[in-house]
Amino acid sequence: LAKTTQPISMDSYEGQEVNITCSHNNIATNDYITWYQQFPSQGPRFIIQGYKTKVTNEVASLFIPADRKSSTLSLPRVSLSDTAVYYCLVGDSYNTDKLIFGTGTRLQVFP
Amino acid sequence: EAGVTQFPSHSVIEKGQTVTLRCDPISGHDNLYWYRRVMGKEIKFLLHFVKESKQDESGMPNNRFLAERTGGTYSTLKVQPAELEDSGVYFCASSQEWRGRARGGFGYTFGSGTRLTVV
Q1: HEC letters along chain B
Q2: Do B104 and A51 touch (CB under 8 A)?
Q3: With contacts defined as CB-CB under 8 Å, which chain A residues touch B99?
Q4: Within its chain, how far is the Cα of A7 from the centroid?
Q5: pLDDT tens column, A71-91
Q6: Which chain A residue is nearest to residue B110, measuring alpha carbons?
Q7: Percentage of chain A surpassing pLDDT 90?
Q8: Quick check: A32 and B102 CB within 8 A?
Q9: Do A43 and B112 touch (CB under 8 A)?
């Protein structure tokens, strides 16, 4: 799976929009981009996945430029409960079942 | 639906002892995975079951680790004998989709993990 690079940590305040960018320069044609969220003492939780352009669900939006070498997870109006570690993963589930986790981005939301 | 259940949630054992971790996947999920994060490191893949068969066990660190999934339902991961470096959090995940069935199908459901401490 392609290696990803994310900021180690980010701080935000309640009500703000948070954008976490992930670099994946070696992404392959068939790779998808998947984001997981992990709260303390819990396992990672799938939040969003996309291939290109923009994907939106009830939790977040995922923006992927045309070259797909990066992606941005956008969390609108964060709350204290969004404090977590966010992982960006890139891979093609057609050819592999493994998730390769990087260090993730530790988001801290302050009141 | 019930999520992925793991127990115990915590386990403290002495070096040289044996520990067995259990994972109950979501009902109907044929795919079951084990991952772990040892202190200060990233979450790493251990192995993957499809039903009762080991599809990929390339991440198993050594022969002190034995995973089973008899009957294709719950799975156990036994560490025998445990060493200090085995301390960490062991996660189990399950999914319904498998390679070839859906591109981009990385929507796994993880359990809350078992925190293993070897002293």
Answers
A1: CCCCEEECCEEEECCCCCEEEEEECCCCCCEEEEEEEECCCCCEEEEEEECCEEEECCCCCCCCEEEECHHHCCEEEEECCCCHHHCEEEEEEEECCCCCCCCCCCCCEECCCEEEEEC
A2: yes
A3: 93-97
A4: 11
A5: 999 999 999 999 999 999 888
A6: A43
A7: 68
A8: no
A9: yes
